[in-house]
Please model this.
Amino acid sequence: MVQAMTATHTKMRSKAKPRLRAVPAVTRAAAILRLLAHSDRPLRLQAIAKELVLVPSTCLHILRALAVEELVALDEDTKTWRLGAGLLSLSRRLLRGNGFATVVQDVLEQLAQKYSVTAIGLEVHGLDHVVVVAISRGHQPFHIHVEVGSRFPALISASGRCIAAFGEHDDDEIEARFRLVRWDQPPSYARWRREVKEARRARFSTDINCYIRGVTVIAAPILRGSQVRNLLVVVGLTERLQGELDSIGKELLEHAAFVAERLEV
Model:
């Protein structure tokens, strides 16, 4: 059930964005890196090429180029490929340069420990996707399958309601992307739109058992101008969070205001 948190990033692009010409080599290299990142074990060349529908010689050429940059590494004994240590350096630099990730970490730890939940800081990329940039796990009887760097479709769960509630997004595109989201117990689009409207009023949103059965997600947006740039998210078992939803939502609002203020300094 918790595995449902691992969602496939949709490839639809916002109408507001200019269309960019694809660079096949870059696109394929990114696909290889994502595949290796999602795999729980190193992969052989043939497995990578088959999964990504690449000509093996082309796949090998890209892998060797990535290896030169230390972004992947080859185990000579097993002839398998894995992510390289060079990505660690890039990740550290990214997080050091991400003011939100730095500011929000203490907030997430407070929430995680107080409510025994997983607290997550998300970076929003329009209607395309969200990226986990910070996370803290409290003492809880289950674990959410999510790590720093995980990407999800923008309109998932409570965070998606917040993204739809704020900003000037096209209604037709919102509906199209909503219908691509996989839910354990999918709400109707009419109900979801009502919940988006409520999120705009309350300035936070709650998803109870819809995205993942038995799991509640509460999210509050951090606005910069008229756009949602980041989100504070709390994830926990529904049975443990009953009776605390409103208080958690209001506390998320206070933390969101604090983080927004710090980011403006």
